[in-house]
Amino acid sequence: MSLNVNKPLTWKYAAEKICSLGLGMALLLAVLMAGCGGSSKATLTSIAPSSGAQGATVAVTLTGTNFASGSTITVSGTGITVSNPTVASSTSITATFTIAANAPTGAQNVTVTGSGNTSGSQTFTVTAPPPTVTSTNPAIGATAVPINRKVTAAFSKPMDPVTITAVTFTLASGTTNVTGVVTYNAASNIATFAPAANLAANTAFTATITTGAKDLAGNSLASNFVWAFTTSAVADTTAPTVSSTNPASAATGVALNQKIAATFSKAMDSSTITTTTFTLKQGTTAVAGTVTYAGTTATFTPTANLAASTAYTATISTGATDLAGNALAGRGSAPNPWTFTTGTTSTASAPTVTSTVPADTATGVGINQAINATFSTAMDPATITTGTFTLAGPGTTTFVTGTVTYNAASNIATFTPAANLAASALFTATVTTGARDLAGNPLAANKVWTFTTGTATVGQAPVNLRSLSTFAAVAGAGLTNSNSGGQTTLNRDVGLSPTATCLGDGSPCSALDPKINGTLYANDPAGIAAKAKADLVSAYNGAAGRPPGTVENDLSGMKLPPGVYTSGSTMSIAVSGVLTLDAQGDANAVWIFQVGSSLTVNNSAQVLLINGAKAANVFWAVAASSTIGSNASFKGSVLAVVSNSVGTLSVVEGRLLCETGQITLLSNTVTVPAP
Predict the structure, then answer these.
(1) What is the rounded CA–CA span in Å between residue 455 and residue 459?
(2) Claim: this prediction has a pTM higher than 0.90
(3) Domain boundaries, the chain
């Protein structure tokens, strides 16, 4: 029994009894009453919210009575971690419940312990998360979509194939539904809508996945998922290629539990990415395994660990096709087939999130911000979904609708909200332990960070290329090529208008001089080249018309963050000079270079992209002509008023576009970058 001396009413009562009971009896009565007024047992009456989904991080408030400073919270069962318990008052405690992705579903008992006693329990229920749409192709708001492409939606978890139909997955132009066939690839959780005929050109379409789509447990989408896109006037005839692999070609010391991944130059038809088209062999012996596809990456998972110190060959056949039905072409940026040699051990190290955009506790974040997480190692794209990468807000229980993509080249996952975020609001981003690396190792713990939005959009928006997005080259006065130093290859369409002249080593362009992995539109009757040329004028005006940025002339040796860089005259990169563009973990970072006169990229110069930078988001608005020397490695879309010329064996990941002059090529490769 304790003596609580802070009981003035008790002592007053005892004093009043002194005369009638005597001093000894009065003191005894006071002690007894003080002791009975000691610590009272805590009670727990409610938890709000009283449930949360697997993989979620939930801020909860516990309500009751007699909560004392230092009280602790206990949850029965497994899968829920309690952190940051704060006694706000004697009747309220706040805390964070982090629910593991594999936490058992159902009710768990929650109690509060303080001052040596424990409350009665209330239940907190772990639920299976509803299925969500992880990504779409075309992307939300995409423009210049080829008219012969299928439409896809990837889900966060396996779906009931019976519920993925032409009723639950629809495509419409206005109020007119498009006729087509819907299929579901269970291996990759991807639904595909294949229109019965080419889509109408230059037309807005709306795709919808309804709540009639259910997962294998019968859970529906929380709401209809609706997105829109606009077509171009052209079909996609460009063959896809393999752009990177993991392990890389000729890699050694590869972990025995490594999955094999190949990233393509464009989105593929998941139904054609199978164990028939993606194989792994030890000599002539096929390795057993499974194949999944997510984003633009196919992953081969061996059934058992690979043999130690052994050479393997991975191959993706021409049976793999893109969403327009174009078969895989030969060597792209990475070899196919490719070989690697294993080491002697497996890897069990858990991957980590090394940086985020926005940073934890950031304020004034743009309401148009995409959310990025950079991983310490290559991840399994099939595990990076809206189920493992979530955004909640305002508050902690309202989840933001959006899509998730993973860039294998930079190890960056991006959550793109379907609409601008609410202003001046707190948001919580979470990457759960459901995210795994290519060795199958999960994150050791959920990665959770918060940020607060400002009131406006921030950063540069990409230049709107409109129909130019499918073109590797557009010129106003024709194209001249020489294969004297090797094969010139243009990976996507070429448009020439009004001058239709196309010459390869002095003769009209042929199948291999230059090789065009797309369509040549040479002042075509349908006006596709003319439309591309008009869109070039608009794109140049849009880029050059942005408010001037940091003044730069010589870019050699510079490391530049996203932004606008302006020169009133020329801009250049010196011989063997290197320009590094650092996205700082933001996969949506944009660079715009405004050049008042000519752009010169000298021999052996390089433009390097790091920390998530993408060639698709680099734009060069050149008021005169661009000249790229020999053996250079260049990134970005050149929007030139006059002409473009490229020296021997230089490689461009981007576009060569000029309004009035011609394009001159010398044994080059020009590839339209992935979005």
Answers:
(1) 13
(2) no
(3) 43-127, 133-230, 242-342, 353-453, 466-671
Instruction: Just give the CATH number of 133-230.
Output: 2.60.40.1220
Cβ-Cβ contacts under 8 Å for 506 (sequence gap 6 or more): none
Q: How confident is the model over 412-452, as pLDDT tens digits?
A: 999 999 999 999 999 999 999 999 999 999 999 999 999 99
Alpha-carbon span 35 to 40, nearest angstrom: 11
Contacts of 459 (CB under 8 A, 6+ apart): 366, 368, 369, 562, 588, 589, 590
* CATH number of the 353-453 domain: 2.60.40.1220
Fold of 43-127: Immunoglobulin-like (2.60.40)
* 43-127 matches 242-342 in fold: yes
Query: 464: burial class by Cβ within 10 Å (0-12, 13-18, 19+)?
Result: middle
Q: Which residue reads 């944009």 in tokens?
A: 590
H-helix or E-strand containing 540? helix 528-544
Distances (CA, A) of 658 to 6, 468, 537, 622, 662: 87, 12, 9, 9, 7
CATH code of 242-342, in short, is 2.60.40.1220
CB 74 within 8 A of CB 110: yes
| Alpha-carbon gap, residue 497 to 659, rounded angstroms | 9
User: What is the rounded distance in angstroms from the CA atom of residue 199 to the CA atom of residue 147?
Assistant: 5
Report the side by side order of strands in the sheet with 285-286.
251-254, 338-342, 311-316, 278-282, 285-286
Do residues 365 and 357 lie in contact, with contact meaning Cβ atoms separated by under 8 Å? no
